[in-house]
Amino acid sequence: MIAKSERLTVLSEAEQVALYGLPDFDDDQRLEYLALSETELEFAASRPGLHAQVYCILQIGYFKAKHSFFRFDWNEVEDDCAFVLSRYFIGDVFERKPITNHEHYTQRGRIAELFGYRLWTSDFLPQLAHQVESIVRRDVSPGFIAAELLLWLNEHKIIRPGYTTLQKLISETLSAERRRLGGLLAEILDDEAKATLTQLLVRDDTLSQLAALKQDAKNFGWRQMTREREKRTLLAPLHRIAKALLPKLGVSQQNLLYYASLANFYTVHDLRNLKPEQTYLYLLCYAWQRCRQFTDNLVDAMAFHMKQLEDESSEVAKQSFAAVQVQRRQETQQVGRLLLLYVDDTVADATPFGNVRQRAYKIMPKDTLQDTGQRMSVKPASKLALHWQAVDGMAERIRRHLRPLYVALDFSSVTPDSPWLAALVWAKEVFTKQQRLSQRPLDECPPTTLPKRLRQYLLVFDADGKPTSLHADRYEFWLYRQIRKRLKSGEIYIDDSLQHRHFSDELVSMEDKCNAARFLSQFCAIFVVKFGRDLTKNITNSQLKFVANYQGLN
């Protein structure tokens, strides 16, 4: 059991045991780690006395498993000791003599030298401190810092120091980082920015601006999305301040999200009682993160309503087309009987046409006959035409649910001079003037957004077949659909977003990925030694979190 301490918790109890606890070999691991090479056996045999030789073999095996040394009593390693005796000292009488400090430290030095490692000394502290200073700029999570330090020590073949040394070093560096950020904020934050940040905390009740900003929308309904847009607008000035100031602080995105989570964790009362610079930092990061989260919420709502309208319009068009087909099949029999009147030999040529007409009305009433004739005399509507007719019936919902979202969002494109963004900017300007798209000259609309196959549905034509204006509701739906499609593909992106940024913002260097994968492999091997080979049963996500919490593996 690891003793509890008032020091900073860097590793969980399970992680401490895995790294610093005595290995607990199973039978397969004894065969793997306690099977010594000739050089290793030669060194073990050189130790004075059987008890020192057995102790040395165990230390070699434990070092190969964990790259660390342990001080243990014989009753703690009975199974491993029995294995060593049965493999290397058959028939010898073993006495459990204590190992002297001199012998213990001599073996440590020789074993480390044998495997090319260096024992930890205080001389390495400056190098390790420099590493911590660099690491905290990327991630202030103690577990992440510990993982990076252990990776650095393994790469340089330095035996890791004691846990308390790591605790003290990481704690001191985190305190120094807080002082650094506090000093920078005190220098670069002007009075106006401080007042804007403080405004979030002015009210005493739980419905302060900050508390309201923390509340998430319950659904994608019109009222909820209106509130989301209002909250996003409220945070926009702080978001602009954060975008300008945070790069000057040298805060990584990982740390930014961590500090933002603290603003979300603390109550308004707690934030008031923290040091001002600390509160400003948390609020700035929160404004940066929350404003972008609001953007993503609006994008999610946009996707939800767009899919709903697309599915509904497709279903309505499908049902309409099926209804037309059924009606035509029903009318075919009656139309056939009407046609047979013209070849009916029982009807004399001298029969007045009025009599024939009355017989026709008995087959199909006059009004039905007129409707059927007119319908059959023109080309039947295609599924595509029926789809756009269904869109016409959804115009009000498009204006109510989709338009406010597209107007509120600022899109960018990887394609220079994207016609779709140009069309959206133009549409926003028209809507700002309280006009309809059909009221504007047709040549204002980017022509490449009007594909040839859809012009008959997206444009209004005069009697001569000349296009006169846009079919406003249809074109608006078409434009929103294309923007959404290109947003999903990555052609269009949103800068102030967490999930829909430019693809290059998500890239991680190959060096970082390789370092993370290498340390993950090493640490999993240590867990195997301590907890067994079945990782799915014995290693929980929380135990490996500090390994997986590495940029590129999240």
Write a compact overview of the structure shown.
The chain is mainly alpha-helical and 554 residues long.
Task: Give a description of the structure.
This protein has about 550 residues and is mostly helical. Helix content is about 65%, strand content about 0%. The protein is built from 25 helices and four strands. The strands form two sheets. The chain has a two-stranded antiparallel ribbon with strand order 1-4. α1 (about 15-20) packs across α23, α7 packs across α8 and α7 crosses α9 (about 165-190). Mean pLDDT is about 85; it is low at about 525-554.
Question: Any key phrases for this structure?
Answer:
4 strands; mainly alpha; elongated; two-stranded antiparallel sheet; 554 residues; 25 helices
Distance between the termini: 30 Å
- The oligomeric state is single chain
Query: Which structural class do the helices and strands define?
Result: mainly alpha
Strand content: under 5%
Main sheet overview: 2 strands, antiparallel
Q: Assign an overall shape.
A: elongated
Summed over residues and divided by their number, the pLDDT gives a mean of: 83
Secondary-structure element sequence? HHHHHHHHHHHHHHHHHHHEHHEEHEHHH
**Annotation, overall tally of beta strands:** 4
State the strand order across the main sheet: 1-4
Alpha-carbon Rg, integer: 38 Å
Low-pLDDT residue intervals, each spanning 5 or more residues? 527-554
**Helicity range of the residues?**
55-70%
Topology:
Elements: H1 13-20, H2 27-33, H3 38-45, H4 50-66, H5 78-88, H6 101-114, H7 125-136, H8 142-155, H9 163-188, H10 191-198, H11 209-213, H12 222-249, H13 253-265, H14 268-273, H15 276-340, H16 353-363, H17 366-376, H18 383-392, H19 395-408, E1 412-413, H20 419-432, H21 455-458, E2 459-461, E3 467-470, H22 472-489, E4 492-493, H23 510-531, H24 535-538, H25 541-548
Antiparallel strand pairs: 1-4, 2-3
Helix pairs in contact: 1-23, 3-4, 4-5, 4-6, 7-8, 7-9, 9-15, 12-15, 12-19, 13-15, 15-18, 15-19, 19-22, 20-22
